[in-house]
């Protein structure tokens, strides 16, 4: 190779090295809206026991996986001892950094409480958590991917081989981020009949702009990819409205119960009050409990809230569709 050829080869290699690799997503904003969630088909199935974690006199607890879209999602499954049939409940946890999240983390007291009282409990980790599969575009999906995982968890329970499960009786319980996910699922018309009722503890706002303002706008790591994808709320208000369940309350088809402490500094009580007002204005069945002096994690009122939740779910089983 001559001197000139070597120089040209070096220049080409340098150019390629300095040329940024495109990481543009093939995902479009229209694919991550509530309307898109309502148009989805769901494939929740293949609920698989991975490892026995605990066995008590009242239940067994396993780590599990199930199918959601083209992913394996991890979670934990509690099966009460006895002949059944037992009702089922899917749990959706609040935000925990995926770097530190552990299988089944986030609602352990609820898991034990429900399983000890005769519920088959499937706590979903969501995609990108624990030992489940990762979705590289998850950060751009405005929790619609986690909402899909919750719906598929309900279907995976229904399609499972758990002989003691009453497949006509499956409800959803979520807290904080998991409560906001519950709003998404409740308004997704394609998910109608998967859950007979929704119990939401301290849910995030049903107006996604408020969630972005609190946790995203001042956090470049979270905000920059979203802003590049869809723009700021003030730049693209129609999109941000399309990921806010408060604009879809007319589509709710199952009763909702909300528990919220009036001293919650993470998810302020005004968010729950706004959701309650919207749901009632749309003529939907809502039960709203406020716990005076309580923060984001109910303490003194938690036992009463769980008893109320079990009673509420029990009154609404007939609405579930196998």
From the structure above, extract its key features.
alpha/beta, 322 residues, 10 helices, 34% helix, disordered N terminus
Give the secondary structure arrangement, pairings included.
Blueprint: H1 3-18, H2 34-39, E1 45-55, E2 59-68, E3 71-80, E4 86-92, H3 108-116, E5 120-124, H4 144-158, E6 165-175, H5 177-187, E7 198-201, H6 208-215, H7 220-230, H8 237-242, E8 256-261, H9 269-281, E9 286-291, H10 302-314
Parallel strand pairs: 4-5, 4-6, 6-7, 7-8, 8-9
Antiparallel strand pairs: 1-2, 2-3, 3-5
Overall shape: it is: globular
Query: Considering DSSP H and I runs of 4 or more, what fraction of the residues is helical?
Result: 25-40%
- CATH homologous superfamily descriptor: Alpha/Beta hydrolase fold, catalytic domain
- Kindly give the count of domains: 1
How far apart the termini lie comes to 73 Å
For the record, what CATH class applies? Answer: Alpha Beta
Unreliable spans are 3-24
Number of helices: 10
CATH architectural grouping: 3-Layer(aba) Sandwich
Q: Could you tell me the strand content as a percent range? A: 15-25%
Structural class: alpha/beta
CATH topology: Rossmann fold
Order of helices and strands: HHEEEEHEHEHEHHHEHEH
Number of strands: 9
Main sheet summary: 9 strands, mixed
- Rg from Cα: 22 Å
